Automatic annotation (TrEMBL):
Protein name (Swiss-Prot/TrEMBL): Stabilin-2
Residue ranges constituting the FAS1 domain according to the UniProt record: 22-151, 373-518, 929-1063
Classification via InterPro entries: C-type_lectin-like/link_sf, CTDL_fold, EGF, EGF-like_Ca-bd_dom, FAS1_dom_sf, FAS1_domain, LE_dom, Link_dom
Gene name as annotated: Stabilin-2
Highest taxon, organism lineage: Eukaryota
Transmembrane segment boundaries: 1080-1100
GO biological process entries: cell adhesion
Keyword Magnesium set for record: no
Cysteine disulfide links: C209-C218, C606-C615, C639-C648, C862-C883
Keywords: Disulfide bond, EGF-like domain, Glycoprotein, Laminin EGF-like domain, Membrane, Receptor, Transmembrane, Transmembrane helix
Location in or out of the cell: Membrane
Gene3D superfamilies: FAS1 domain (2.30.180.10), Laminin (2.10.25.10), Mannose-Binding Protein A, subunit A (3.10.100.10)
Pfam families: EGF_3, Fasciclin, Xlink
Biased composition (Polar residues): 1135-1150
Length: 1168
């Protein structure tokens, strides 16, 4: 093992056949000494460098040392595999940081099945999951970006080669879409193992979840489910968002039910909400030559494809003139013979002795193409000692002295722009004759200097630039790229010349072929003419060869004289053939005629309306005048009628807009500038001003921007109103399903006791919790902040728009007259029994009932008030011009920008459920107690005594009478009951013992049982109350020596105290003594008086008693006086009413004779 510079990494050394191998590589040259170590040359390496360098461009994503070390330790490998290295390289593109766009994909050296994705997360650029730490480390042909993590190979595509020609592109399992993006979930656990992903090249990436699972990646449970296997039920929205998707909002509808609504940017039924992928429709709005990549819910970005540029919405083909195209000439018809070097030939030296130009060897030949033949060579050829020699149109070599200039080392290297033969032949014959005349070499030399750029060897890719190039002559030369149909072409001097051949390399520089001759107008344009004259001389015989007959003899002149006639080209003037004013291409700016040719003036004869050296000037008249020009003209402006001034720019006309609106439409705005009238439609109308039509915002195809569950109604030109449809509530811009209040008493009796009557005050409220408040100072005296304070004082909040809408829609639940009583129609219409009068009265009664229903069916209050979010509105239920201008519904003033405006306020308060114990029961409604026997049966700790009572009732008539006594609501009693621990199961009580526990005189509360109190029992025996205190001053009370453990357990016909042990009745009844009739009468009178005093005292105590039994911890007073009464009257709630009514008196006297009271039930046991 040999340690490397990577911590924890080692190279494996082995010895095979006497040779040392390192990781399987043989040492072919060892022990090469260096000053700081030794080098061994091995025969194994990754052959990637030559492949990468052979590409025209490349981009490498290189992990740092720490990343490589972590990867090697994690994977337990010796070094990075070759496939891993190839996965980090993109060929044929030099991608700088600015070229890496969010959502873009590029293929790696591993092929199209292994693309890299680029993503921007929190302003950090990532390649797949690896962050880019540093960027734009440039090389000569590429760029390197540093990574903080080694990229792990992800195979997104699994293409299928059906034949040798057709390739079917397919995504691997767990990937979907054109870019083979990963399915939701983890790469190794698609859809979290709880569903199946719709993957593939045409897949949508949607997870079809298994039973009980839900969510984009099946990561949550379905509605009503929870647990690790999503197989346990839950209630509504209380747990796990009600079973809705994590991307949905759970809204409670009715008790035990809910509805799921997907959030913005997601689509589905709420149970399953998936991100809206805009790329799946119309390519996400991207250009057809762009790649659409989803970046979030209903969000996507567009990136132009390779070889195209733009913002993704619009992509155009990259101007190929900005890149090198050395072989562009090969697209011609040919034929050509191409000597093409191998890719490796750029880096290797030839080994054989057969060369072309003593330099390149032919290694493969005779490769035939449609327009030529190719021989492959192993070396790049370049011309040597190549000189561009100018020739005339006839191909004659011209020695102008320019060759000595461009070969001078002072000027080399040079860039030449040489006219093609076709360009020279296209010149006028007279101009050719002038330029190539031996006497005009100096002028031709000046022309040729326009085609030379000294001290520069400029490649085609560098020619186009914003600055101009300087020629050897000193003039400026610009190179621009073509556009439109000329994309890929290069043009000189504003598209006057085209480059037709590129980068003709020679050892002094580079040359380009152009299709024109560059001329500087200041050098003049000579187009001399040549004329032949016959000169008289000696005649001689000649033979004419005629095609249509035999040869004919004749004679001809011996001499012919050719004379050169000096002449300027068109656009130049004599004598030096200088350019006419305005330039030779546009002499006199095309506004006159140049006196050129043989004229020595070169002046411009301007057209009417123009003057100046190059006819560049005019009178400058406005559109309302014309110039008096010409030789005899004054040069002044002649104005139209109604205009004056030197330039005819001052108006003296009338205002046409006052006459028939200037010809504009009646609903258009007329404006006049000078004598010109312009028309424009007013707001709410559209047209050209002469014809204006109303704008119907509801016809824009988008329902006037109203909610999908709302209707759009045009209310005027350019105005509309949104109104929610039936069974929906809202302002029209936002509508939600109508959810009328439900009677909470219908479910679990409104949490009231089973023996209590439930009344849902909120359900019974005619305005569903909404009420109107006004300042004590009068109407419209509340700012928004004061309005919130006013509602808070009423334990309420400011109502929302929807809450006010519910109040307006719901209205009262029954028809009432002004007194609040049920209306029957007979209060105001008399009926005397007469048939005709009866029919009339009945009809009038029905009409009034209908009118009252119409008026009172909804909330109507003509007083605007604040709503939540600073909105102001008020409800109306019938049309009235004085209230809402006939609008029925919510008269909305909108959200007020000034919260200091003065209005009233609409408040909202959720009212409570009112619970009242039924007749025969007592309590606060949430807890109700029955008679003594029912209460006794409800306590498990008192079952032993109950068993004895039931046994006693089954044994004798007196026992049955005792049991009936416990259920008699007309009798008030105090019962002492021993707890189970004090009365064993094997211990029995006699009938007398049982009746000894009951005092039927009246109800005695615990506070009434003071020391020394004596109670008479049903037997006539007596019970003595005593008390004692321990060292901590804690008092304990006893009845006949039995400790009272619990007390004041209320029943509808008495009260129960729990004692420690049972009471034992005396062995003999207490005897009554009769000393005489007078004594008996006196005792009876005293007894009656005492009973009356005791009853009055108990009555007062019952009306102000607070319970002391720890099992009844309510702070509310218990109306013991109402024990056993029939259905109680409704009691006004001070929290929700403006006034408080007094507590009603009981419907009977609790101290009347029991025989006068009816029994509450025919069943003496009630609940038995």
């Amino acid at each position: 093992m040999l340690a490397t510079s990577l911590q924890g990494n080692f190279l494996h050394l082995a010895k095979s056949d006497g040779n040392i191998t390192i990781e399987g590589a043989s040492v072919i040259d060892g022990d090469n000494a260096a000053t700081n170590g030794v080098i061994h040359i091995i025969n194994k390496q990754y052959n990637l460098a030559s492949v990468i360098e052979a590409a025209d461009a490349y981009t490498v994503f290189a992990p740092n040392n720490d990343a490589i070390e972590s990867y090697i330790q994690e994977k337990k490998v010796a070094t990075l595999e070759e496939d891993v290295l190839r996965y980090h390289v993109v060929l044929e593109e030099k991608l700088l940081k600015n070229d890496l766009h969010n959502g873009m994909h590029r293929n790696t050296m591993l092929g199209s099945s292994y693309p890299l994705g680029f993503f921007l997360r929190n302003d950090q650029l990532y390649v797949n999951e690896a962050p880019i730490n540093y960027t734009n480390a440039a090389t000569d042909k590429g760029v390197i970006h540093g990574l903080g993590k080694v990229l792990e190979i992800q195979k997104n595509r699994c293409d299928i080669n059906d034949t040798t020609v057709i390739r079917t592109r397919e995504c691997c399992a767990g990937y979907f879409g054109p870019q083979c993006q990963p399915c939701p979930g983890r790469a190794e656990n698609v859809c979290f193992g709880n569903g199946i992903c719709l993957d593939g090249i045409n897949g949508t990436g949607v997870c079809e979840c298994g039973e009980g699972f839900n969510g984009t990646a099946c990561e949550t449970c379905a509605e009503g489910k929870y647990g690790i296997h999503c197989d346990q039920a839950i209630n509504a929205c209380e747990i796990s968002n009600g079973g809705c998707s994590a991307k949905a909002v759970c809204k409670r509808t009715t008790p035990g039910r809910r509805v799921c609504v997907c959030k913005a940017g997601y689509a589905g039924d709420g149970i399953m909400c998936r991100e809206i992928n805009p790329c799946l429709e119309n390519n996400g709005g991207c250009h057809k030559y762009a790649e659409c990549t989803q970046t979030g819910p209903n969000q996507a970005i567009c990136n132009c494809l390779l070889k195209y540029t733009g913002d993704g919405k619009v992509c155009t083909l990259i101007d190929v003139c900005l890149t090198e195209h050395s072989v562009q000439d090969l697209i011609g018809p040919g034929p050509f013979t191409v000597l093409a070097p191998l890719s490796a030939a750029f880096d290797e030296e030839p080994r054989d002795t057969v060369f072309i130009n003593n330099k390149a060897k032919i290694i493969s030949s005779d490769i035939i193409s449609t327009n030529g033949i190719i021989h492959i060579i192993d070396k790049l050829l370049s011309p040597q000692n190549l000189l561009i020699t100018p020739k005339d149109a006839s191909g004659r070599i011209l020695d102008t002295g320019l060759l000595s200039v461009i070969t001078d080392p002072i000027h080399t290297p040079v860039t030449l722009f040489w006219p093609s033969d076709q360009a020279l032949q296209a010149l006028p014959p007279e101009q050719q004759a002038f330029l190539f005349n031996e006497d005009n070499k100096d002028k031709l030399k000046e022309y040729l200097k326009f085609h030379v750029i000294r001290d520069s060897k400029i490649l085609a890719v560098d020619l186009p630039r914003s600055a101009t190039w300087k020629t050897l002559q000193g003039s400026e030369l610009s190179v621009k790229c073509g556009a439109g149909s000329d994309i890929g072409e290069l043009f000189l001097n504003g598209q006057t010349c085209r480059i037709v051949q590129r980068e003709l390399l020679f050892d002094l520089g580079v040359a380009y072929g152009i299709d024109c001759l560059l001329i500087d107008p200041t050098l003049g344009g000579r187009c001399d003419a040549f004329t032949a004259f016959d000169v008289s001389g000696k005649k001689q015989k000649c033979l004419y060869d005629l095609p249509y007959r035999r040869n004919l003899e004749g004679c001809k002149q011996q001499c012919t004289l050719v004379i050169q006639l000096p002449k300027c080209c068109k656009g130049y003037f004599w004598p030096d053939c200088q350019a006419c004013p305005g330039g030779p291409d546009t002499p006199c700016n095309n506004r006159g005629v140049c006196l050129d040719y043989y004229s020595a003036t070169g002046q411009c004869k301007c057209n009417n309306g123009f003057n100046g050296t190059a006819c560049e000037l005019s009178c400058g008249c406005s559109d309302h005048g014309h110039c008096d020009d010409g030789i005899t003209g004054s040069g002044q402006c002649v104005c139209e009628l109604g205009w004056t001034g030197r330039l005819c720019d001052k108006q003296t006309v009338v205002d046409f807009c006052k006459q028939n609106n200037g010809g504009c439409a009646k609903v258009a705005k007329c404006s006049q500038k000078g004598t010109e009238v312009s028309c424009s439609c007013q707001k709410g109308y559209q047209g050209d001003g002469h014809s204006c039509t109303e704008i119907d915002l509801c016809a824009d195809g988008l329902n006037g921007r109203c909610h999908e569950h709302a209707t759009c109604q045009m209310t005027g030109p350019g105005k509309h109103k949104c109104k929610c449809k039936a069974h929906y509530v809202g302002d029209g811009l936002d509508c939600e399903p109508e959810q009328l209040p439900l009677d909470r008493c219908l479910q679990d009796n409104g949490q009231c006791h089973a023996n209590a009557d439930c009344v849902d005050l909120h359900f019974q409220d005619t305005t569903v919790g909404v009420f109107h408040l006004r300042s004590p100072l009068g109407q419209y005296k509340l700012t928004f902040d004061k309005a919130k304070e006013a509602c808070a004082k009423e334990a309420a909040t400011i109502a929302t728009y929807n809450q006010l809408s519910y109040a307006q829609k719901v209205g009262p639940h029954k028809d009432c007259d002004d007194d609040g009583e049920d209306y029957d129609g007979y209060d105001d219409i008399g009926y005397n029994g007469n048939d005709e009068d009866g029919v009339l009265a009945m009809m009038l009664r029905i009409m009034m009932v209908v009118m009252i229903v119409m008026v009172m069916a909804k909330y109507h209050l003509c007083s605007a008030g604040w709503l939540d979010s600073g909105r102001v509105a008020y409800p109306t239920s019938y049309a009235s011009q004085s209230c809402g201008s006939g609008v029925v519904g919510i008269v909305d003033y909108g959200t007020r920008s000034n919260k200091n405006e003065m209005w009233d306020v609409f408040c909202y308060r959720m009212k409570d459920v009112n619970c009242t114990c039924k007749a025969g029961y007592v309590g606060d409604g949430f807890s109700c107690s029955g008679n003594l026997l029912q209460v006794l049966m409800s306590f498990p700790s008192l079952t032993n005594f109950l068993t004895e009572v039931l046994a006693y009732s089954n044994s004798s008539a007196r026992g049955r009478a005792f049991l009936k006594h416990l259920t008699d609501l007309s009798i008030r009693s105090t019962l002492f009951v021993p707890q189970n621990s004090g009365l064993g199961e094997n211990e029995t009580l006699s009938g007398q013992d049982i009746e000894h526990h009951l005092s039927n005189v009246s109800i005695f509360f615990y506070n009434d049982l003071v020391n020394g109190t004596i109670l008479n029992t049903r037997l006539g025996s007596r019970l003595l109350i005593t008390s004692s205190q321990d060292q901590h001053q804690v008092e304990t009370r006893f009845v006949n020596g039995r400790a009272i453990l619990q007390w004041d357990i209320f029943a509808s016909n008495g009260i129960i105290h729990v004692i420690s042990r049972p009471l034992k009745a005396p062995s003999t009844p207490v005897a009554s003594s009769h000393t005489g009739l007078g004594t008996g009468v006196s005792f009876a009178i005293i007894l009656v008086i005492g009973a009356i005093i005791l009853a009055a005292y108990s009555y007062l105590r019952l009306n102000r008693r607070t319970t002391g039994f720890q099992r009844f911890e309510s702070d509310e007073d218990i109306d013991v006086a109402a024990l056993g009464k029939q259905q109680p009257e409704d009691i006004s709630n001070p929290m929700y009413e403006s006034t408080t009514s007094a507590t009603p008196e009981p419907s009977y006297n609790p101290f009347t004779d029991p025989d006068d009271q009816p029994l509450g039930s025919s069943d003496p046991l009630g609940a038995l």
